[in-house]
Each structure stands twice: as C-alpha cells, then as structure tokens.
Amino acid sequence: MNEFLDHAAALLTQAAGRIIIAILIFIIGRLIIKWILKFLDKSRFLNKLDPTVRTFIRSFARIGLYVILVISLIGVLGVPMASIVTVLASCGVAVGLALQGALSNLAGGIMLLIFRPFRVGDYISAAGEEGTVKEVTLFYTIINTVDNKQVTIPNGTLMGANVTNVSAEDTRRVDLSFNIAAANEIEKVQEVMLKVAKANPDVINTPAEPFAAPVEGVPGGLKYAVRVWTVKEKYWDVYNALMKDISTALAEAGIGGPLTHIQMEEK
Q1: Topology match between the domains 2-90 and 171-252
Q2: 6 pLDDT exceeds 60?
C-alpha cells in the first residue's frame, strides 16, 4: 500500500510539475506571440504591402503561432504525438466534415488575396450587405456599414456571391429622378435641371456631360432622370446638393409635381 501511495505521489508531483511548466509556457508564449504581432504591425516590409495583403499575412501568422504554441504544450504535458496522430486519423472523416466550412472560407480568403476583387478601404455590396472593407482575414471579411455596424462575412460566401465594388473606379455617376406635372414644358424643365447640374463645382464632364430628360410616364406627369458624373469621393456631396438645389430651382421656376387624385369610396 505504501509503495502504491509513493508511486501515486510521484506521478502527481510529476504531473503537477508538467502542468505548472505548461501554464508558464502558455503565458510566456502568448506574450511572445503578442510581441511578434506588434513587431509585424510596425515592420517596414508589411507597411509597404497593400492593406489587404497585410491583414491577411497577420491573420495567417497569428493562427500559425498559436498552433505552434499548442503543439509545444502537448509535448510538455507528455502526451505522445503518435497517439494524437492516431486519434486524428481515426476521426479524420468527422473532422473533415466539421472543418468543411472553415476550409471553404480559407480557400475563399486565398482566392480573394490572389484575384483582389476589392481591397481594404473599398466600399462594396455583397451577400446582402454593403459597407467599407475594414479587414480581410484568413476566414472572414469584415466591413463597416454606413451606420457604423460591423458585419462579418465568410470568405467562402464572398467568393460565391456577386460583389459590387463601388470604389473600383475613380468616377461615379449620380442618378436622380423627379416627378414633374405633364403641363410643364419639357424644354423648360430640362433647362432648369441642367443649369443647376452644370453650376455644381464637383460635377465633371467626363465620361459624359450632365444629362436631364423625361424617361417614363407617371400618373399625371413624367419622370425626369438627371445623371451627372463626379469623382467617387464626392458622390454623396453631389447627390445631396443636386437633390436640394434642383428641387429649389424647380419650385422657384413654378414647376411642380403631378397632382395626386384621391378617390373617395362611396358608401
């Protein structure tokens, strides 16, 4: 009995020593990983790279360092690597099915890095969401919406979806529409709209000059489309300014919208 107790005490002492060493390695390892990641963030090499590539490399390095740390902890705890490999091999099918989505996202992240349909800082619309790309990691792409919500989209989903990159080109077309009563002269309406559009300093004449014309009929009048071009950074400034200024100019010129007729139901 005494021999058993002595043997058990020795095993417990050895296990406790390994656990303490493992805890120390875990703490020190995390500190080292944080230091390495901070070093990468300040590295001149990474700072010269595109922000999309930079965040991808950082994400890859972070996961790789933690994998090394986990393997080190397993070795310190005395768990035979051969046993772990055997268990993983026997559970390979289950693990493969469980990681199917993750592997799809990883492959999607690599494809996004190669083909670059968008970059960090671009405004995109994809997978039912739209906003500014904040970060592209190994598995997910993070975007910020216009109302400052953070949306995380799996990279696999992005690779299988239609992605609209609003920031890809230097210029954008601003499209506005106004409903005007049919009694107003078309030439007069066009003149008022074009005068306001051409007077805006942020409107440019390439690839096309400002356009204003009726495009379809509406009850009691016509729908007019106003189309102008501007640099992408000024899109919303031009949109808001023209919406306000054209509406004001139309009212000053005595040009109004179609009347809405309300038919009362007889009882």
Answers
A1: no
A2: no
- 171-252 fold: Alpha-Beta Plaits (3.30.70)
In 3D space, the residue among 176, 175, 184 whose CA is nearest the CA of residue 253 turns out to be 184
Q: Which residue has the higher pLDDT, 13 or 71?
A: 71
User: Does residue 42 contact residue 35 with C-beta atoms inside 8 Å?
Assistant: no
CATH of 2-90, picked from 2.60.40, 2.40.128, 1.10.287, 1.25.10, is 1.10.287
**pLDDT value at position 98?**
58
Whole-number Å distance between alpha carbons of 186 and 171: 29
What is the third-level CATH fold of 102-165?
SH3 type barrels. (2.30.30)
User: 53-89 burial by CB neighbour count: b if 16+ within 10 A, else e?
Assistant: bbbbbbbbebeebeeebeeebeebeeeeeeeeeeeee
> Are the C-beta atoms of 34 and 42 separated by less than 8 Å?
no
d(CA 267, CA 263): 13
Report the predicted TM-score, pTM, of the whole model to 2 decimal places.
0.61
Assess whether pLDDT exceeds 90 at residue 38.
Answer: no
Locate the domains of the chain by residue range: 2-90, 102-165, 171-252
85/167: higher pLDDT: 167
Q: Rounded to an integer, what distance in angstroms lies between the CA atom of residue 76 and that of residue 190? A: 80
Q: What is the pLDDT of residues 144-197, one digit of tens each?
A: 998 999 999 999 999 888 999 998 999 999 999 999 999 999 999 999 999 999
